[in-house]
Automatic annotation (TrEMBL):
The keyword Oxidoreductase applies. The lineage of its organism: Bacteria, Pseudomonadati, Pseudomonadota, Betaproteobacteria, Nitrosomonadales. Its cofactor is FAD. This is Pyridine nucleotide-disulfide oxidoreductase. GO terms for cellular component: cytoplasm.
């Protein structure tokens, strides 16, 4: 019998949700969690609403690594990076030692996409994808006034709203004429844009090409030559699943680390979940999918092979300036957006040729329909 522990790499929501679910089913099997960060538990979605809620990075911690060790009855190695995986020997390589595993779970998260920029101040650009990033950004923005955000996606829009709420003057550079264009059609997208503009956010069409030190703080230059003066720059142009280490170990990767519905990679006893994973063809970097994955994988790891099922999982965009909920669907031949605007907001429904609901984007008070509509959507994975 293999007495090596189950090793989970990562201590984000995917890793810790899995560990909690696993402990509900198996109180005894040795569990080792290895994490490059401090191992404190926190809810990542809170990062983009923390100013409004008056919370510092430290105040976002819901449970310290020490308490997590106790609660999970796990060994948690913090500030420890796994540098390689040997799937044949069933070992992970740390800087100064090698650890055996019985089963290995990759919960590695995603990297922020770095903008390609000219200029002498490119090292003054922040991105926020974990608690430590957030602490650095808060320190940099302390006592400053003007923040320029790159990217009008979900995270860029949420930070814009949060920073305005905290009294910052916010500019957003976004290369499309409305935000969140990959998730919704123009009308609800414009509602978000206008809602944030009414709060005072200045929108710039384009993308940044350079950031330089100027006489008055930083100067951001856009591709059309427009310049924006800023004290702090926050890049929110996207996330990319962390696949390199898995790929180097011979594990199949595409957009994410490829798994089947049991979260199994092609390597024996190696699983993946959360933002790093591509599960049965889906990369869904949100909380609800990772929770469904964690429940299924916990059951599998404790002896009952279980496939993950995904119902439709709408995402709430945390922009109080324009409350928004969106359920995306892959573009389908013959399907179209039916957009209705009322005084209360926008109700955009994505329907197939027979009128069957496939997705939606709701703004304002129309978001109240979110749960009712979600019930009509087909599951993502049955
Ligand atoms: P992460 O939390 O990134 O964890 C990855 C872990 O792996 C970290 O502990 C890291 O240290 C560790 N790691 C990586 N490589 C190594 C290595 N080689 N060795 C050791 N450790 C390693 N989703 C929603 O559904 N709703 C929302 O409202 C929402 N808001 C969001 C707001 C923001 C600002 C952001 C950034 C994301 C938001 N999301 C939201 C997405 C959601 O938070 C993520 O999908 C989720 O937190 C991902 O968890 P994870 O555990 O997969 O990754």
């Amino acid at each position: 019998m293999n007495t090596s522990p189950i090793i989970i790499i990562g201590s984000g929501m995917a890793a810790y949700t899995l560990a909690r679910e696993f402990r509900k089913l198996d109180a005894d099997t040795a569990l080792t969690i290895i994490t490059a960060d401090a191992g404190d538990a926190y809810s990542k979605p809170m990062l983009s609403t923390a100013y409004t809620q008056g919370k510092s990075a430290a105040q976002l911690v819901t449970m310290s690594a020490d308490k997590m060790r106790e609660q999970l009855k796990a060994t948690i190695l913090t500030h420890t990076r796994v540098i390689a995986i040997n799937v044949a020997a069933k070992q992970v390589q740390l800087a100064s030692e090698t650890l055996d595993y019985s089963k290995l779970v990759l919960a590695l998260g995603a990297d922020t996409v770095k903008p390609k920029l000219e200029g002498d101040a490119t090292d003054a650009i922040y991105s926020v994808n974990d608690l430590e990033d957030y602490a650095r950004f808060r320190t940099a923005a302390e006592g400053k006034k003007r923040v320029t955000i790159f990217g009008g996606g979900l995270i860029g829009c949420e930070f814009a709203n949060d920073l305005v709420n905290a009294g910052y003057s916010v500019d957003i550079a976004h290369p499309h004429h409305y935000p969140l264009e990959r998730l919704m059609p123009e009308v609800p997208g414009m509602a978000i844009k206008n809602g944030l503009a009414q709060l005072g956010v200045r929108w710039h069409l384009g993308f940044a090409s350079a950031v330089n030190h100027g006489t008055d703080g930083l100067v951001v230059t856009l591709n059309d030559g427009t310049t924006i003066n800023a004290d702090v720059v926050l890049s929110a142009i996207g996330l990319r699943p962390r696949i390199q280490m898995a790929q180097a170990a011979g594990i199949n990767v595409q957009r994410g680390i490829v798994t089947d519905r049991q979260l199994r990679t092609n390597a024996p006893d190696v699983y993946a979940l959360g933002d790093c994973a591509e599960v049965a063809g889906h990369v869904l970097p949100y909380v609800l999918p990772l929770m469904a994955q964690a429940r299924a994988l916990a059951a599998t790891l404790s002896g009952t092979a279980t496939e993950v099922a995904y119902p439709a999982m709408p995402v709430v965009v945390k922009t109080p300036a324009c409350p928004t909920a969106v359920a995306t669907a892959n573009p389908l031949d013959g399907a179209t957006w039916q957009v209705n605007c009322t005084e209360d907001g926008v109700c955009a429904l994505y329907q197939d040729a027979e009128g069957k609901l496939l997705g939606f984007a709701l703004t304002g008070k129309e978001t109240a329909q979110r749960q009712t509509l979600a019930k009509q959507l087909p599951p993502i994975l049955n």
